[in-house]
Each structure stands twice: as structure tokens, then as C-alpha cells.
Amino acid sequence: MERSPEAYRPATAAMFRTRRASGADTIQVGPNAVKNVDQRYDAPSITSASFLGSAKAQSTNGQPIAIMVNLRGGARYAMTYGGITAGATKVFLPVAYKYINSQGYSWSSTLIVSSLGSSTAQVKISYLDNRGSAYSAENLGPFPVSGTQQFDLRFHSSTSTLANFFGAIVIESTNGEPVGAMVQSRGLGGSGDALLAYTGLGQ
């Protein structure tokens, strides 16, 4: 696709805010620049010893920004994923695992669902096998505004009775509030574990 020169014009310095329930931090990023924010040292609004939740970043002067997250667990684990730019009432996650053995690793996944609307979200989660046939569905909620919940497929009630799972997950908002979803997968084995993460496809 050919774009006009306007599309490539350097942006002016962007100010954006990382929001969480207990506070907000504001930083400045120059045009076409990159800024690393380590939550251990660069997020003064996080005052607790540990943090598990979500963050919302927005430009405060209208300049476009892109966000990604790098996660690290000790010296063995690391993964990266991109931010969700908009919520949807239906999110498709094409692959998730529970105790699937491949290439010397045992793969299992965690499903993470975030409420991105202005009111609490009611959510239906459907599990499909690798042939696309429905396995089960469950209704969950309410998810509070900006709230995030995670479901480990090894222990979550809907898949806990299965010895293995390899298939897709569909997240649907049953009350019209937008949601976002992602999958984090970990392969146990070898001298170091393998990890991957991706965000769902909104419809």
C-alpha cells in the first residue's frame, strides 16, 4: 500500500500515562524514540512490594504511540507481547494448551481476560477442540471496569477434568461491554523453559 508523505511525518514529543487503580505515572518520549519503563524502578505509583494487574497507556497530547510488554521471571523465563489497542465484544484465541507434549516440552497455557469498557462486563468463555468442535462453555463475571482475571488451564474448573487440551478459546461479552484477551503459554522441559504470549483477535 502506498502512503502519502504525511503518514511518515515525525511526531512531536508524546506524553503518555500508565494508569492503574491506585495511581498514574507520566513520562515523556521524543519523536520516533523508544522509552523503557521498568515497573520495579520507573513506576512510582506502584508502591506495593509486588504487582499483578494491568496497565493502560494513553497519549496525553494526541500523538500516536505503540506499547509492548517484556516479562522476565528470574534467569530462565521471558516473554513479550503487544498491547491491545481496542476492545471487542468477541475475541478469538486460536491456540491454547494443557499438558501437550511437543519437542521435549510439556505445554500449558493461562488465559487472561480484561474488561475494557465503562461498565462491568459479563463474559462467556467457549473452549473448542482442534477440529473446531465445541467442548464446553461457561459464563463468568462480573468483570469490574479495567479489571483483569487469569485462568490457568491446568487448574481452571472448565478444563481441570481434562487430561489434555489442545484447541481454541472464544471470549464473548454477553452484555456488550468491550473486552480484551491474551494467552500466555509455558513449555516445561530441558535446561530452560520455553514461553510465548499473544493477544487475541477481536471481532
Summarize the structure.
The protein has 203 residues and is mainly β.
Protein traits:
203 residues; mainly beta; Hypothetical Protein Tm1070, Chain: A; 2 domains; five-stranded antiparallel beta sheet; globular
Task: Note down, in words, how this protein is organized.
This protein has 203 residues and is mostly beta strands. The protein has strands at residues 14-20, 23-29, 56-59, 68-73, 77-82, 90-98, 100-102, 105-115, 121-129, 134-143, 148-152, 165-173, 179-188, 194-199, 201-202. It has 2 domains: 5-66, no CATH class; 90-202, Hypothetical Protein Tm1070, Chain: A (Sandwich), CATH 2.60.290. The chain is globular. A hairpin with a 2-residue loop joins β7 and β8 (105-115). A 5-stranded antiparallel β-sheet has the order 10-9-12-6-15, with no helix packed on it. Strands 7, 8, 11, 13 and 14 form a 5-stranded antiparallel β-sheet that branches. It has a 3-stranded antiparallel β-sheet with strand order 2-1-3, with no helix packed on it. It starts with 13 loop residues before the first strand and ends with a strand.
